[in-house]
TrEMBL record:
The name this protein goes by in its record: Uncharacterized protein
Entry keyword Coiled coil: yes
Gene source species: Cryptomonas curvata
Keyword list, A-Z: Coiled coil
Annotated segments matching region Disordered: 133-154, 188-209
Residue ranges that the Swiss-Prot or TrEMBL entry lists as coiled coil: 7-44
Top-level taxon of the source organism: Eukaryota
Amino acid sequence: MSFTSSMKSNEGAIEVLARKRESLRQERERIVAIQLARAQAEERIRKEAIAEIRSSCAEMLNLKARVDETNAQLIADLDRMISRAKEFRETPSAAEMNLHHLQRNFLQQTEIIRRQARQEALEREQDRINHAQSQLRSPALQSGLSQDLTPQQADSIGQSFENAISSLHNPHIAATLLLLSQKRNAPEQDRAGGYRPMLQGGTMLAHGA
């Protein structure tokens, strides 16, 4: 009877070990699947960020072309005004007044276009940041991380993602963001061109928002 009991006990232990081994195998497969999904999400976010930056650069080039075209038109207006002044033999004072008026109009139009370009660049940058952060906070990715990582490790990985995206910033757009974020607390009437801040916390990625 003692031998039979010992055999049954060993068989039970073997079955327990087999179940544990199968459980560990399934757990390893689940961890590998989560890690693969995390890597794919990171790669997708990186590619989307690069595509957004390229698109922003193309739009900035289009804005520059518009500014150049406007400048050319204003210069042509100046030339026509000078020619008309000579043709009608205007007095020097009248010609100077016309030139001064055109110069002031030229500067005003150029400043308006520059403000529009800065505002559009800021809006595109904010949309790209919001999109990237929404990807980082997707429920599927967060649930996968929380099953295998401590909160500190999950935060560290999230910060790494944000730092990677932050490193892709266009330096000109980043400079614009910094300049505009410094003005976000200025009185409404002091903000150039009726600017209203698009960011509530400055440059969001820099602070890991």
